[in-house]
Amino acid sequence: MKIKIRYTIFLMLIFSSLAFSQESSLIPFPNKISQKGGVFLISAETKILANAPAAIQAAELFNSWLNQTNGYTLPIVASVVRKDRYIAFSALTDTSEKYLLKVRRKYVLLEGGPAGLIRGTSTLLQLAFQSLENKGQISCLKIYDQPKFGYRGVHLDVSRHFLSKEFVKKYIDLLAIYKMNTFHWHLTDDQGWRIQINKYPRLTDVGAWRSGSMSGPYRNQKFDSIPYGGFYTQSDIREVVNYASQRQITVIPEIEMPGHSLAALAAYPEYSCLGYVKEVGRGWGGYEDVFCVKDSTFTFLEDVLTEVMELFPSKYIHIGGDECPKERWSKCPNCANTRFENNLRNDEELQSYFIQRIEKFLNSKGRQLIGWDEILEGGLAPNATVMSWRGIEGGKAAVRSGHQAIMSPGTHCYFDHYQGERATEPLAIGGYTPLEKVYAYRPIPDSLTKSEQKLILGAQANLWTEYMYDEKQV
Length: 474
Ligand code: ACM
Ligand code: ZN
Hints:
alpha/beta, Chitobiase, domain 2, TIM Barrel, 2 domains, 8-stranded parallel beta barrel, disordered N terminus, binds acetamide
């Protein structure tokens, strides 16, 4: 396992070591960087000087990463003597992600608040890793760094294919090494419900398992009959959230509604419009059975969200909201009744009613709602943040009406797309998103005013796993 982890981080970092100089190949590139003459030599004899708890925590994280990339750790000490070469981790009370990294011949200084120290640790790791090819040398330099965006997210779909808790932690490490600060965990979908909910055990007893899966490309409509599934216990979830928090990463859970909910409805068909749902989804793509818009559904979802909020301290809770077919609603007496009682003109307004009702609940618990850009249809919930995935128009519309947005357009941010020549890559969902395109992506579109620009919180990459069959491929 250890060798596998080291290999993954090694692969991710080797990209940076191919460039011509250490500091120019840092990813993401720092805000301000200046080079001095000379080098600092790092080796297993180098000491880490750290005193405050936040400094020690960052130093320990550095050691655990360094062990994976360089194969050694450094002693953490509370004081040094003249002849020592050392890396000082110095904790400030700053709550931002800013950090200062100074590399001198005798010492390295990394200074920042708790979050800044973790971000600086990522830079230091990239330099330390590159030093392996350079006889342990790190060029003397000075870096002032701070992120341009407060939201830098990466998503992972664990519904279509389940990924182990250990793998999720490895994924979170990679996020941290590239200074991402949000992990969006897509925990529920048509093809599997992956989070234990104590009040509704069938969600995982039934909803976490399917009788087979689509195999090969969607157009072939071929299926295997191998039972498939898995889920995280509440204790697993706590462990992952805590692991991420030590890396200054917030985990935002996504609980899909009203669409993409077949797995939940297979477990509790009473919350569907027909009162009957055949099974957890085996094929990719959408399903007509969605949550019925009636009071008992909201009671159920509020109970679920209550347990979710106990597990995830994040300010934001993602409720999906994308790709909800309206066929069932249009023929359902319960949905018709909700439309009538609330003077809703059509099913777009019914969807908006659904999202607004959930938003009210989340807000009453001090949380904020994020949804995919379909939540704009029929009128946006008053405090919602929009995640723009069908291009950037949803994000633009959101900020123009005073809402926050996160940019995640399929054109640049869908990492399940092909990233090279199709013939040389495993089957993917489609698209073409090479590295250069992603790296060049700028989340603020032209034509926004200054105040609208401020409402773009940042960007997010999404990794859907319909065609990602195992951890290796992810
Ligand atoms: C999405 O890709 N359906 C958000
Ligand atoms: Zn209904």
